[in-house]
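Input (structure):
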């Protein structure tokens, strides 16, 4: 298995869905995972989906070449077929696209050292949000900074994910922030300029 990370990219503005960006979600991973789903309009979503699909195609090519090389080293004529992983997005019935972004809260480096991290979060004025107790709400207008990665595992297949299989870095830029407090939403700051 392998993962190849890329440079930091930024999405257009979209709508946050189920953001877990202040504190990691530990329900299925004890080490914690930060995540956010981003709903993009049809035009922007199609462009990002096309870029992700291109990464998946390249990932399958790389995994196929590696499998053929391994088969050759073992004296086999043919390598096992490489499965293509599901894309990290869904095209919705209304034509919009929802993308899944995630980042592991901690991990282990090749030398065995444990590291921890969290996404960098900016409020509507561009200032970093450092209060990790804020519950940032779905429905907020955001841009997501991410690293697209290629990966291959025998179980999942070859694919391209945003921002990676939890390996890449992630930043969240809130243009219009909704805070969740006891079943109510309140704005953290006014909306920033309308440019994407």
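Output (sequence):
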């Amino acid at each position: 298995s392998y993962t190849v990370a890329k440079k930091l990219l930024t999405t257009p503005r979209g709508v946050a869905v189920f953001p877990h960006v202040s504190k990691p979600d530990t329900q299925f991973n004890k080490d914690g995972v930060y995540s956010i789903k981003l709903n993009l309009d049809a035009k922007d979503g199609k462009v990002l989906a096309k870029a992700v699909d291109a990464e998946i195609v390249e990932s399958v090519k790389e995994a196929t070449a590696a499998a053929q090389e391994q088969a050759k080293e073992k004296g086999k004529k043919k390598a096992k077929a490489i499965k293509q992983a599901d894309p990290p997005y869904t095209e919705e019935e209304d034509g919009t696209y929802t993308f899944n972004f995630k980042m592991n809260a901690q991990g282990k480096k090749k030398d065995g050292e444990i590291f921890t991290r969290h996404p960098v979060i900016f409020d509507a004025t561009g200032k970093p949000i450092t209060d990790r107790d804020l519950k940032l709400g779905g429905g907020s207008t955001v841009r997501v900074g991410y690293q697209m990665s290629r990966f291959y595992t025998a179980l999942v297949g070859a694919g391209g994910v945003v921002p990676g299989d939890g390996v890449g870095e992630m930043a969240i830029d809130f243009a219009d922030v909704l805070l969740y407090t006891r079943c109510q939403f309140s704005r953290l700051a006014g909306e920033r300029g309308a440019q994407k």
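Notes: The radius of gyration is 19 Å. The first helix runs from residue 42 to 73.
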